[in-house]
Each structure stands twice: as structure tokens, then as C-alpha cells.
Amino acid sequence: MHDIKAVRADPATFDTALARRAMPPVAAEAIRLDDLRVEATRLVQAAQTTRNELSRQIGAAMKAGDTATAERLKAEVKAAMDAAASATPDVHEAARDALLATLPNRLDDEVPDGPDETANVVLHTHGAPRNYPFTPRQHFELGEALGLMDFATAAKLAGARFTVLRGALARLERALGQWMITLHAEEHGYTEATVPYLVNDATMYGTGQLPKFGEDLFRTTDDRWLIPTAEVPLTNFVRGEILAEAALPIRLTALTPCFRSEAGSAGRDTRGMLRQHQFSKVELVSITAPTESAGEHERMTRCAERVLTDLGLTWRRVLLSAGDTGFGAAKTYDLEVWLPGQGAWREISSCSNCRDFQARRMDARFRSAGGKGTEFVHTLNGSGVAVGRALIAVMETHQDEGGGVTVPDVLRPWMGGMERIAPPG
Fold first, then answer.
1. Number of domains, the chain
2. CB-based burial of residue 5 (10 Å sphere; 0-12 exposed, 13-18 middle, 19+ buried)?
């Protein structure tokens, strides 16, 4: 959400910032709607002033027995109040806010210009793609050959973009989630939380999923929404709150299922587990003071990178371009892993600094020590990481010629000491 005061102060700069996201200018329309609100508010206040003044005159006329004057003054009061009733400043304010609510966050100056992922910038690569003495398989080829990844049963149960895992693969997925959230809670200082998987409109609005992305979500018959990520409930912990500066930063993590309709993904990644309607993810959320959010962004990204390094994966950090940065983010790092079966880099984590964009929607503030008034907090979120994609990366990276999968060392305690998932027979 944007501050109308900032739009008014420099409309040209505001429109230029939106142009980086290939959006048309809207500052003039936002200001026009706010002007209507200001004028309507003035009419209401003037009517109330008129009513108060004339009420005193009516009282004096009635006391003097001047009924005609009193009735004339009453008519003037009614006319003023009728004008105030038709002014409806709240309607104009709602129209202004509805427009502002559809506009994406302003981008950080460091975000490179560009229309899409082709303009993203690779900042760092950890490791190099491994050379295999055989042709590496994709995860679904491995999983089906192991007899532990079942798409046919999932389709029978729920339709496309679902997966059934069995046996050691089901345990490996569970191990990944449990290991990751334990790492973030015990070593990285995040407070683990369990959260509702169903949330209301206000919660979805607070983090920017509504109104723009309703078609990408699953809605229940009682007007709740299945969460697309734990970012939604975790960030909304501070909605409507005024925090003490000493309480910041707040760092939260949760392991949850995530539900996405993938409305815009027809025909993309239809094989395997890369793009599912339901998947698990460990989410990281930070609430900070404005001066601390840039440093927190780097810290959060390093926490996610630690996961990939400890799993023995080849990965890289990518700074997203203007055209590839998400709606609510001012700056985003994607972490991509090399999938040898696909022979491609695929995103496994996004870590974003949203600055005060979500905080304005949530009215989440803090009061500095000894300071006057309040400021909006900054919010950040990141995947720490997506469990299903981590499973894919582990399977493809640590496969062997016999069709088995070596279990990374860090996961073996969670797998009962299992070192290898072996093919049947």
C-alpha cells in the first residue's frame, strides 16, 4: 500500500517508479480521488459547523417566540446536513484506497531494469554442476522407478498437480521439513510457530494477496482462504499492533502446507513435483525497524543458503529484475539450485524485503525508544526452503547409476540412520 502523501509530494517520481514495472501512470487519478475526499470532508465539516451555529440561533429564536425564524433556520440546517450526507468522503477514500491497493511496491534502486527473468543478475554461485558417469534422471523418473512416487493415485484422489509419496521418499520429505525448521529455530534464532491454514480476507489483504491475486488462491465456502504460504499468517501477527522498538526484530518460522491454484501456469511443469497445488514449505518472516531491514534481508538469505549448502546442492543467488520482482517486494533474491536431471537452474527460495508496503496495509507500527509518534515497521519474508523442491534437488543431485539416492549426512538422523534409498529388488 502506498502513502497518498508521498504520491502528492512527487507524482512524477511515483509514476516513474511504477513505469519500471511497466505500469501506466496513476498518480493523477489517485490525487483526483483524494481531492474528492478532501472536498467532501470539507463539506461535512462545514455542515457540522453550520449546524452548531444555527442550532444556537434556533434556540434563541424559540426562546424569543420567533417561530418563523426558527423554522427558516431549521430548514437551513437540514439543507446543510443533506449536502453533507451526499458528500460521502468515505466513498471517495475507499475508491482512492482501492486504486492504491492494486499498485505494486516501489522497487529498490539496486533492482536492475528489465522485463522478465532474462534481466536477472547472478550474484554468486556455490559449487559447480557435477559430472555424472551416466545420464542423470529427472526426479519423477527416479521416484517412479523406486516405486515411491505415485502420480496416478494422486490424480485419482485429487486430479492433476498432486503427488503421493510412499515409504522412504515420504520419510525423506518429512525429514527435510523437520530438519530445516529445527535448523532455523535452534541455530538461526527464529521462533517456531504453528499457524492456521485458513485465514480471513483481512489477513490476505495485509500481505498483498488480495485483491489482486484472488484467482491464484483457494477459497472455502465460508469465505476463508487456504494459505498460499505461511508468510500470510506469520506477517499478520503484528497487524494492528504498535510495537516497542526494543521488541524488534521479530523473527518467525513455520512449517506448513501451502495451497496454490496455479491459475496462470497451464502447460508449465506438468510432469513431476515442481509446480503443485499443495506442497510443504518452511517460511521465514522478519519484522524490523526501517534502518535494519536491508541487513536483515542479507541475513535471511544466508539462512536459506545454509540449507542448500548443508544438503550438498549446487546453488546460486540471483537478484531479480524489475519485471520479475513480486508485487509486494521492493527487492528480492532468488536462490536457484542446479537440477542435473533437468539440466537447468530452478528457483527453490525467494527472500524479499517488502519495506513498509505490507505494514501500511496491516497498520503495523512501532514506537522508537524516547521518540514521539510511531513509524511503520518493515517486513521481510523468505523460503527456508520449499520442501518439495528440496526433495527434488536432493533426489536429482544425489542419485546414483543404480537408480538409488544417497541420503545427505544432515538428514540421516531424521531417517533412522538410512544412508541410501535403494531401488526395489
1. 2
2. exposed
